[in-house]
Write a structure and sequence with these properties.
Strand order of the largest sheet: 7-6-5-8-9
Strand content: 5-15%
Distance between the termini: 13 Å
Number of helices: 11
Bound molecules: phosphoric acid mono(formamide)ester
Amino acid sequence: MLKSKDLLGLKDCSAEEIYEILDTAAQMKNLLKSDCKQSDILRGKSLVTLFYENSTRTRSSFELAAKYLGASEVNISVATSSVQKGETLIDTGETLDAMQIDYIVIRHPMAGAPKLLAEHVKASVLNGGDGMHEHPTQALLDMLTIREAFGKINGLKVAILGDIKHSRVAMSNLFGLKKLGAEVYMYAPATMIPKELEKLGAHVCKSREEAIEGADAVMGLRIQLERQHGGLFPSLSEYSKFYGVNDALLKYAKKNAVVLHPGPVNRGVELTPQLIDGEKSLILEQVTNGVAVRMALLKLLAEYREANV
Ligand code: CP
């Protein structure tokens, strides 16, 4: 049983809760891969997606997860909503609560916005990514993908390379992977490494080779041009040359290493097209697992609500 009505981040989730989500997601994946992707586990429930930033994977996979489990779902297009008339986040949340919504999935450029919303609504709030803070469902689907590849997470070496500083995916993966016993090695240009990263348990590396050496999983992170204000690296082509991952670098990893990326990928920048489309790439499996993880969370939060709310 989860311990909260909301999923705001992995920093505050226990290993037991993470395992419960992954185990439930593995069951949900069977339903997702079956001929009839339909269940009535969430019949009568309703979900709203409220995205203040763009998304393909997160938003659509939450919407599909709700549909497959029998819930109603609605997207609020922030660009054409009353947010544009100056409505506050809390007023928007209370308005949705008044409509008897069960789940609100929010993506917001401000770190902490999902928590603020969760404190003011009865609905379960799921963080679909908040600023540079956390993207918990992405890390959960990454962990499910890694566990499927190796049968475990404990004891693995995971290398994460790219724009660590602006990446909520990196933070959630660091919290989640460490709780399940993996070692996390990170590498980025000095301008893209946040201070205090080592205090959070990451191994901060001095080179790509050091990060990838002996790794079981190698994850590239997207260069987040929208969160940068310039000057962090000279150009995309130089980034690719000095900081990207290619076939030659992947040879430092274990023979059976896998390649991950949360997407969307800047092809040829963080990873070469050969790696993205190669046999070691699990990037599309991550997308499938994203639906399974979100189905699992909706089910588990429904159980929490039934027992506690
Ligand atoms: N990985 C991820 O969050 O993708 P979207 O921005 O497409 O949702």
